[in-house]
Sequence to fold (427 residues):
Amino acid sequence: MTDRMTPPPALGCRSAPVLKQRGQREVFCGLTGIIWLHRKMQDAFFLVVGSRTCAHLLQSAAGVMIFAEPRFGTAILEESDLAGLNDAHAELDREVETLLARRPDIRQLFLVGSCPSEVIKLDLSRAAERLTQLYAPKVRVLEYSGSGIETTFTQGEDACLASMVPVLPATQERNLVVVGALPDVVEDQMLSLLADLGVGPVQVLPARTIDADVAVGPNTVFALTQPFLSDTHAALIRRGARHLAAPFPLGEEGTTAWLAAIASEFGVTQDTFDTVTEAPRRRARQAVAQAAEALDGKSVFFFPDSQLEIPLARFLTRECGMRAVEVGSPYIHDEIHGPDLDLLPAGPQISEGQDVDLQLDRCRAARPDLTVCGLGLANPLEAEGLSTKWAIELVFTPVHFYEQAGDLASLFARPLRRKRILNGPAL
Ligand code: SF4
Fold:
């Protein structure tokens, strides 16, 4: 299915030595995922059991919603809760009762653990079981941790989706489950491509509503659209589903390879595949070529942040002409990241985890043309004359599949163009 694609490099990065480091790290916590998940799941509510800090993080990351009833909130743990003076479970029950009475539209309630709830060892799984018994079948109550002690920011989505897998209905039907929260418009493009290929039935996790009937069983195959879903991947395998390993659908090549893995599983002919993908592939290639003019020949350094780093490095090196100096990822999972590592030409240092000071030293020594990193590192590096791209933007912006490939390249090109304009034509 991929015969007209650029051949893989003679030596990819899958077996390259990985620099593993554990030390201080600079990333957002898993609560951040609520910002995109609450938009995706239209009948869900995310109740963070946390502190005022957690509430502030959510408010500032999401923007204060004045005109709409938000689908997230924080049950604040006060000092007396943290000191163990109150029955936190009874207080949580009261909060949930008030919330569900006021918001009859809520069908799925996620209790989201935080650093404070973990420190006082508040057992949210017990709370979720108790509340499910109280409110089922109208409301399903689940729990997961978004705590900064346990999760980096994209792991919040992974923890949320993994919490849903055990309660998905069982099926014996052969179906495809596509896993990962995408903006609706991008998800619709993907579903339309799969329908044109004749692949089905297709379900998406997370679904927009609880009634979408995502079901899983021994004849289910699943494809990930996000590379940070390792717990969800493991949970689906425990339910008997089989993973279709493939590069991620970022850029023209990644999208084609991702679709090809599914098409091959569902017996789609090469002719049908070519007919369906030819026009969008051409559009994607043209859009990338236009945007990548500023990227060609430039070097890029990835700090570990979103777990999108490996597929992005594959896209930037193979489709945009960049050279990767270091590709850092919080975690590397061979089954999930292996197909992208196979395509990433040997050369860059692959690193897993972070000791931020040592990594900053490597970055300063390399002086890359572009550094992809978290917000906390971007400003100091800009002050030192390095161009940066905020990793979090890549999670908030539609970047997957053919029609977004040009926008994805543009996101990286923008800081380089800005620098060229500021510094004049010599750069
Ligand atoms: Fe901060 Fe932890 Fe709350 Fe995240 S969960 S906002 S890291 S206190």
Q: What stands out?
A: The longest strand covers residues 44-50.
